[in-house]
Amino acid sequence: MSSNSNISAIGQRWIELSTVDSTNNYALTLVKNNLAEHGTIVFAHHQTAGKGQRGKTWITEPNSNLTLSAILRTNFLPLHQQFVFSAAMALAVQQFFNNYTANDTVIKWPNDIYWNDRKAGGILIENSISGNGVWHWAVVGIGLNIQQTQFPHWLPNPVSLQQITGKKYDCLQLAQALCPFLQHYYGLLLQGAYTTILQQYNNCLYKKASTVQLRKNNVVFNTLIQGVDEQGYLLTGDTYIQRYCFGEVEWLIPKK
User: Fold this and answer.
1) Angle at CA of residue 17, ends 98 and 107, nearest 5°
2) Where in the chain are the domains?
3) CB atoms within 10 A of CB 58
4) What burial class does residue 4 get, using C-beta atoms within 10 Å of its C-beta: 0-12 exposed, 13-18 middle, 19+ buried?
5) How does the average pLDDT of the chain come out, rounded?
6) Which of 16, 58, 134, 229 would bridge with 50, disulfide CB 3.0–4.6 Å?
7) pLDDT digits (tens, 9 = 90+) for 93-111
8) For 149-153, which contacts have Cβ atoms below 8 Å and span 24 or more sequence positions?
9) Separation between Cα atoms, residue 41 and residue 10, nearest integer Å
10) What's the CA gap between 23 and 136, in Å, rounded?
11) What is the distance, to the nearest Å, from the Cα of residue 52 to the centroid of all Cα atoms in its chain?
């Protein structure tokens, strides 16, 4: 732990790009070539091939949204705490966005940022793990809709900060303002405050204690959201609790 206590603050090193295919790709190249420094932020004004969860693409208008990747040291974390790390990063982004949305921002499992049933952003974490099981680096890709007001028709429920608040924002300034939130939750990880992180995550969980529609293997069913456990399983049901891993079930959210 002591070797990590004096590392650079998140955002102290800043790489600003006008255009890139993916900030995660750029950051992962630094990791692969042993050029990574903890706390480095790779920010792009335009991302041409942003990556979403499960191989999806993240569609973003040029100069309109917050698209960045944070390179973070994770060698002090055991591999089985990958979800707690993900939860900490989701909390950082949710708390940051919540500052602008009158406390209406929540986290949709596992790490989408939601406002009133609409998706404002998402997080994609890609890891560097050695053959002996040491988790060296995490690249935390963050995308938030900020200025964009027109979205592709196939996206079911997008929303931007400008649409929510009616105000305009500087995406670069917002990216810089996000860093202290990332730093705070990274600090909790350094302290081993896993229980605190999980409790806070569940307090901010989208549709917790509500009945929702899920689909598994083309079967649609209603179930009560109980929370998420430390392994990242979604817990649902009433008398009998069911556990679902990410990708096992699909949320059915009405199009806005």
Assistant:
1) 20
2) 2-203, 211-251
3) 19
4) middle
5) 92
6) 58
7) 999 999 999 889 999 999 9
8) 150/61, 151/59, 152/59
9) 7
10) 19
11) 10
Report residue 48's pLDDT band, with 50, 70 and 90 as the boundaries.
confident
Among 179, 176, 175, which residue's Cα sits nearest to residue 65? 175
Dist. CA 255–CA 99, nearest whole Å:
26
Tokens of 62: 């040029």
- What pLDDT digit, counting tens, does each position of 137-171 carry? 999 999 999 999 998 888 889 999 999 999 999 99
| pTM score | 0.93
Whether the predicted pLDDT of 70 surpasses 70 = yes
Compute how many other C-beta atoms are within 10 angstroms of the C-beta atom of residue 11. 20
Distances (CA, A) of 133 to 12, 24, 82, 128, 137: 29, 22, 12, 10, 12
Full DSSP string of 97-166: HHTTTTT-EEEETTTEEEETTEEEEEEEEEEEE-TTS-EEEEEEEEEEE-S-----TT-SSB--HHHHHS
Looking up tokens 């982004």 gives: 93
Query: Residue 97: CA atoms inside 13 Å, Cβ hemisphere, count?
Result: 31
The residue to which tokens 């040491």 are assigned: 134
* 131 CB neighbour count, 10 Å cutoff: 5
